[in-house]
Amino acid sequence: MSELGVDLSSVQPQLLTPELAETSDLLITMGCGEACPYVPGLKRLDWPLEDPKGKPLERVREIRDEVKARILKLIKEEGWGKAET
Predict the structure, then answer these.
(1) Which residues have C-beta within 8 Å of that of residue 46, sequence separation ≥ 6?
(2) In degrees, to the nearest 5, what angle opens at C-alpha 76 toward C-alphas 71 and 19?
(3) CB neighbours of 49 closer than 8 A, spacing ≥ 6?
(4) What is the rounded distance in angstroms from the CA atom of residue 4 to the CA atom of residue 48?
(5) What is the CA radius of gyration of the chain?
(6) What is the DSSP letter of 64?
(7) Is 49 helix (H, G, I), strand (E, B) or coil?
(8) Range name among 39-43, 50-54, 64-68, 70-74 with the lowest pLDDT average
(9) Per DSSP, what are the bridge partners of residue 29?
């Protein structure tokens, strides 16, 4: 992500708790299918993406770019604002 000017060094994964879910409008999971967490009343999308852990750098970049494309498409579909390309 630093290649794109995004600093994630201080970001840590968060456990999906009921309290966290209460503050959310949408839950996007990545490839967990039926094993994904269910939160009543929360819209959920599951994007079947490969886990980048342990993959070669070029594959990680491809996965990153696929996530970006999906996010931009979602922003456009939901009408949340002007999506950057």
Answers:
(1) 28, 29, 30, 31, 32, 33, 36
(2) 55
(3) 30, 31, 63, 66, 67
(4) 23
(5) 14
(6) H
(7) coil
(8) 39-43
(9) 46
> What distance in Å separates the CA atoms of residue 57 and residue 28, rounded to the nearest whole number?
24
Instruction: Scan for tokens 């966290």, then name that residue.
Output: 20
Candidates 9, 43, 37; CA nearest to 24 is 43
What distance in Å separates the CA atoms of residue 66 and residue 28, rounded to the nearest whole number? 14
pLDDT tens sequence across 13-45: 888 787 887 888 898 888 877 777 778 888 889
What Cα–Cα distance (Å) separates residue 48 from each residue in 3, 11, 40?
24, 23, 21
